[in-house]
Amino acid sequence: MAEMPNPNEQNDIVLTHFIVSNDIDRSASFYTSVLGGELVTKMDGGPSVVQFANSWIIINGGGGPTDDKPDVTLEAPTDPTRTSAFLNIRVADIQAVYTKWSALGAEFLTEPQDRGAEIRCYLRDPDGHLIEVGQSTAGSASSAN
Question: Which of 6, 23, 37, 42 shows the smallest number of beta carbons within 10 Å?
Answer without folding.
Answer: 6
